[in-house]
# Entry
Amino acid sequence: MPTRKVSRSAVTGRFVKRSTAKRHPRTTVTQAVKVPKKRK
# Structure
């Protein structure tokens, strides 16, 4: 199953942009999340 990288704030738990995660590497976490299959 394919994965997609998402960035999340370690303080609030909210999703953030990848550019924000690069600026604040200590307070963000990058995760690999499985992408669900498309429904027919």
In short: The chain has one domain: 3-34. The first strand starts at residue 3 and ends at 9.
